[in-house]
TrEMBL record:
Parts of the chain that traverse the membrane: 12-31, 75-101, 113-137, 144-169, 189-211
Organism field: Kyrpidia tusciae (strain DSM 2912 / NBRC 15312 / T2)
A UniProt-annotated Pfam family: ABC2_membrane_5
InterPro entries xrefs: ABC2_memb-like
Name of the protein in question: ABC-2 transporter permease
Keyword Transmembrane helix: yes
Keywords for this protein: Membrane, Transmembrane, Transmembrane helix
Length: 216
């Protein structure tokens, strides 16, 4: 599985470099850690879809299926990629924030473990929703859904900022569960992580079954 991740890093290094630059510019302009986290979530899903589309145009699946690897392993790697790259984006922005503080040029705001948890859950949602659709309908339908989900996550960024402003003047309208997660309450985070893990496992099993039906 690690070799598949390395393969994608090598094959898509130019795309990755462009996306890294884009996320750094976005985070430098936003200066809100929550908005930065949502931007990273959008980036992870977009990067995953770019990899799938390039693989589809190059018929990489035909080549990979001629190698002594299982289709289950190939699907698992696809599911892991958004989470791995989401963590990478989190570390990248936090390192940039530390460097900015060192050089007294605070362009970036550091994120905490709450933001990391949100990134992991958000990146997992990309896999949970998008990959079964991909393995069911194929890559032609994915490119349209990417724009829809990117719009949804962008709208979510506006909602998060609005909730933050609303909470400053009137805490009562904020849903208690959302507020508890924002405050790092373990009682709120544990159910969210458990539900995400269950859906993640179910989605993965479904995608494996769908991909095993593909014919090349």
């Amino acid at each position: 599985m690690r070799s598949f991740l390395v393969k994608d890093l090598i094959m898509y290094r130019k795309i990755l470099a462009f996306n890294v630059l884009a996320i750094l510019i976005l985070c430098a302009l936003s200066r809100y850690p929550s908005t930065d986290a949502l931007g990273i979530i959008v980036w992870t899903g977009g990067f995953m879809m770019q990899c799938i589309q390039v693989d589809s145009r190059g018929r990489a699946d035909v080549l990979l299926n001629s190698l002594p690897v299982t289709r289950r392993s190939m699907v698992v790697v696809r599911y892991l990629e958004p989470v791995v790259f989401g963590i990478f984006g989190f570390l990248l922005v936090d390192l940039a924030a530390a460097a900015a503080v060192t050089f007294r040029f605070p362009l970036f705001q550091p994120m905490g473990w709450i933001h990391l948890g949100g990134i992991v859950i958000g990146a997992a949602v990309w896999s949970i929703v998008m990959l079964p659709i991909y393995y069911w309908l194929g890559p032609a339908f994915i490119q349209y859904l990417v724009f829809v989900f990117a719009f949804v996550f962008s709208a979510a960024a506006v909602v998060v900022r609005s909730l933050g402003a609303l909470h400053a003047v009137a805490p009562e309208p904020i849903p208690s569960f959302v507020h508890a997660m924002a405050m790092g309450n373990a009682g709120a985070w544990l159910p969210a992580l458990v539900v995400t893990a269950v859906l993640y496992a179910a989605s993965l099993a479904l995608s494996v079954r769908l991909y095993e039906r593909w014919e090349f």
